[in-house]
Amino acid sequence: MTSKEGMREIESAIRGVLMAKWDPIGVSDEPQAADEYDSYIWGIYGLFKKGANDEEIAEHLVKIETERMGLTDLEGKPFASQQALLSVAADLREILTSVSRKA
């Protein structure tokens, strides 16, 4: 696999998890929104490459939701539960570990 192919596979893998498992704004059913979360892909991958654990990746997702997207309840707390975000982080780790082994 070339470096360019590997990057595309990583990007596609992360995009798939973000759309299927995370999707804080509920656009996964909209084909034209397939790239909605692409601006977050390489930050997530960077955390993975640095050895971030699931809690650190989940915290990164919380920051995206609350600070970048402004998605909080009336008390300023994130809508997503810590458990849900840890599950997304675990899915990201699993898929990235698999893709990294191929590269």
Q: Quick recap of the structure?
A:
The protein is mainly α.
List the helices and strands and how they pair.
Elements: H1 3-22, H2 41-49, H3 54-68, H4 82-102
What does this structure look like?
This protein is mainly α. The chain has one domain. The chain is built from four helices and no strands. It has helices at residues 3-22, 41-49, 54-68, 82-102. Helix 1 packs across helix 2 (41-49) and helix 1 (3-22) packs antiparallel against helix 4. It is globular. The chain starts with a helix and ends with a helix. The mean pLDDT is 93.
Order of helices and strands: HHHH
Q: Report on the biggest sheet.
A: none
Distance between the termini: 6 Å
- Residue runs with pLDDT of under 50 for 5 or more positions: none
User: Helix- and strand-based class?
Assistant: mainly alpha
Strand content: under 5%
**Annotation, overall tally of beta strands:** 0
Helix residue percentage: 55-70%
Summarize model confidence as the mean pLDDT: 93
The number of helical runs is 4
How does the overall form come out from the CA principal axes? Answer: globular
Radius of gyration: 14 Å
What is the total domain count?
1
Keywords:
single chain, 103 residues, mainly alpha, globular
